[in-house]
Design goal:
- By secondary structure, this protein is α/β, with parallel strands linked by helices.
- The protein folds into three domains: about 10-130, Nucleotidyltransferase, domain 5 (2-Layer Sandwich), CATH 3.30.420.10; about 140-275; about 285-420, no CATH class.
- About 55% of the residues lie in helices and about 10% in strands.
- Strands 3-2-1-4-5 form a five-stranded mixed β-sheet.
Length: about 425
């Protein structure tokens, strides 16, 4: 008996390209109802929305859309319109393509139909993009940009250091014990004033003091200037004069890149912290030991503020890569670390767990127990991070702050009072 009056499910697939997109609509039976090529602009998006509305798209029953990317203006506008958007991995699309053609044919229109059929047959196996707030999306942009800037700064530092080793060991020796090395303001100011070892040997103590003040140093200026002056006066091997001058010009160019990278990282860190402080989840996240404004912003940027995104704490742990993977076949059973994960969240998780060892007695005791049980340092850190992710999921779901006594109930009270003092 045929049931009438109920809307027929529709599914949309979009094959993304740089300047145009191919769109396909299929129904529940897999019949291709429409296909269209749209431009990557406002007029193209208007064509897409018109096509969806003509086939039953409504605010109460929006047509789900599958696309191979989670970024771009088209995806942003689709998410803003309230439609469920599924970002399908291109490797998964390639596997699904073989189900529809054994000849291995491929075209943009055909891929759009494959994407639509993925939602028709296996939509429950894929996760839609989260319905994050506008603020958390902005935090995500800033936090990821700041993390990229930090990585760029590290690369610029390594390039400069490698080049200085060829002709300028004095500057490396002068700042080898400094916390930030060549990235410190003092090192960059002195290197800008003396780009070769010959120029560095001519710097007077008074000039060095002026450079340290220019870099922002306020304490121990005279002692530091005397120390650096003594390092520069030591005997070193030298390149030929013209070669040394050429290497100095190269070092100056690399220094400008490092200065830019350092400035970008600092500016983005400030912007990220300000945006994070405005988010209502910031208070809960910062209550955890080992999380500050920057690391907390990175955590929030990756997990978002959509409370329905993760069904349970286990899903969040798997997303973060802290939950292990078990591979069992017959009598063989192997527990391994998770390789497929959010790499940015896993990176900040290691920092979070490491810092918490000095901020939380419970975290330290948990780490020590894992080490005594045979875990290596990284495995023990990952296990601690896994536990923190479960706590964070619970606290965010219920709007509660971190409580050390509940997080690690077996920890002696004396240790809690010691850490508070």
């Amino acid at each position: 008996m045929e049931i009438t009056g109920l809307p027929t499910p529709m599914f949309c697939g979009v094959d993304w390209a740089e300047d145009h997109h191919d769109v396909a609509l299929v129904d529940a039976g897999g019949t291709l109802l429409a296909k269209l090529r749209i431009s990557d602009d406002a007029a193209g998006f208007a064509q897409l929305t018109t096509l969806l509305v003509e086939h039953g798209d409504h605010a109460d029953t929006p047509i789900p859309v599958a696309i191979e990317t989670s970024r771009g203006l088209l995806v942003a506008c689709l998410r803003a319109s309230g439609r469920p958007v599924f970002a399908i991995n291109p490797l998964a699309v390639a596997r699904y393509r073989d189900r529809h053609s054994v000849a291995r044919k491929k075209s943009d229109a055909f891929d759009a139909a494959v994407l639509a059929n993925i939602l028709r047959t296996d939509m429950a196996a894929h996760r839609p993009l989260p319905a994050d707030s506008e603020l958390v999306q902005a935090i995500s942009v800033l936090a990821r940009a700041q993390q990229d800037a930090v990585w760029d700064r590290g690369q610029a530092h390594n390039r400069l250091r490698s080049q200085l080793r060829e002709f300028y060991p004095a500057i490396l020796e002068a700042f080898t014990q400094h916390k930030h090395g060549l990235c410190s303001r003092e090192a960059r100011a002195i290197l800008a004033a003396a780009s070769t070892p010959t120029m560095a040997a001519r710097l007077t103590r008074r000039r060095l003091q002026a450079l340290l003040k220019q870099a922002g140093r306020v304490r121990g200026i005279q002692a530091e200037a005397d120390r650096i002056h003594e390092v520069f006066q030591r005997d070193y091997l030298h390149q030929l004069p013209q070669v040394e001058a050429a290497l100095g010009r190269q070092a100056t160019a690399l220094l400008r890149q490092l200065n830019t990278a350092c400035q970008n990282a600092d500016d983005l860190e400030e912007a990220t912290a300000q945006a994070f402080d405005d988010h209502p989840d910031a208070k809960v996240i910062r209550s955890f030991p080992g999380l500050g404004s920057l690391t907390g912003a990175r955590v929030l940027a990756e997990i978002g503020d959509d409370r329905t995104r993760f069904a349970n704490a286990g899903s969040l742990k798997a997303y973060a890569g802290s939950a292990p993977v078990t591979r069992a076949s017959g009598k063989s059973c192997v527990v391994m670390s998770r390789k497929v994960k959010n790499q940015r969240l896993a990176a900040v998780g290691y920092v979070w767990a490491f810092v918490s060892l000095t901020r939380s007695p419970g975290a330290r005791a948990h780490y020590d127990r894992r080490r005594e049980a045979g875990d290596r340092h990284v495995a023990a850190q990952r296990n601690l991070f896994n536990r923190f992710m479960g706590m964070l999921f619970h606290c965010l779901q219920h709007g509660r702050l971190y409580d050390e006594t509940k997080a690690f109930p077996n920890q002696p009270l004396a240790d809690h009072s010691a850490i508070a003092a």
